[in-house]
Amino acid sequence: MDIERPGAEQWVPSDADVDRLRDAVQGCRGCELWRGATQAVFGDGDAPARLMLVGEQPGDKEDLAGEPFVGPAGRILSQALEQAGVSRESVYVTNAVKHFRFEMRGKRRIHQRPDAGNIQACRPWLEAEFAAVQPAVVVCLGATAGRAVLGRVVKVGAERGRPLDSSGRIVVVTIHPSAVLRLRDSGQRSEAVAGLAADLRVAAKLARDVDTA
Length: 213
What we know:
alpha/beta
């Protein structure tokens, strides 16, 4: 049976700043994910911002806290930003999908990747954030974010770390910080964080180049 997904457009206020969007998103019924989530989790950071990081969706801790990237993946992201010489306070961080998609296993909520319908339904919120934040460069953290931003299937390994164009917007694709958490070997983790930091460094330089052009 098809799931009804009217999309978020009717809930997104026009020409709104980030604070107004953050308030409005709590009423969104653009797809089914609002039913199980504690709350919508909107982006965080100053606007405008030269660098905007887009992840997949909030996780369990983010769903409870109401803030993006505050769990284990957020700690990896902060570590990579520090290595890249980029202050987390200087970037705007958000997710492609604003509600937590999960399945129950006993009493635990286990992450489920949002599907194409969830991504499409939530796209108006992302577009509104682009308009409010006005980033010089958008960093896609993982394939889901890449698909949401670029509007196509993204192969992270083949496209990461180099500037891409999306309707005149500069986009850099890299891994999601959660990919680091899945590595058991500490050496592999360190290497993966360094790779993520290198991609973030590229994005930061591209943003500076835009400012000085």
